[in-house]
Amino acid sequence: MPSKEQNPLNPKKLLLSKWTAVKPSHKRKHFLVSKVILPELSDSAIEFVEIEAVFDKQIELIPWRQLKDTEIWIQGWV
After folding, report:
1. For 24, what's the count of Cα atoms within 13 Å in the CB-facing half-sphere?
2. What angle do CA 61, 70, 59 make, to 5 degrees?
3. What is the pTM of this model?
4. Cβ(40)–Cβ(33) under 8 Å?
5. Contact by Cβ (8 Å): 51, 27
């Protein structure tokens, strides 16, 4: 089984990065990482980010690693 292609990402550099949904829903295609959710324990890894739809400002909480999946997200606004 072929592995999914991945975008190389650093979770600490995600804030305000731009993303395009491969399969847009509800006219939400372009997104901005509006918040990086810091873990309660400072030595723990970042796990989640908030993304905001440019179209209607809808906010979604997603695991940041999902952004590495090129079947779901393309880095930048395409």
Report:
1. 14
2. 20
3. 0.85
4. no
5. no
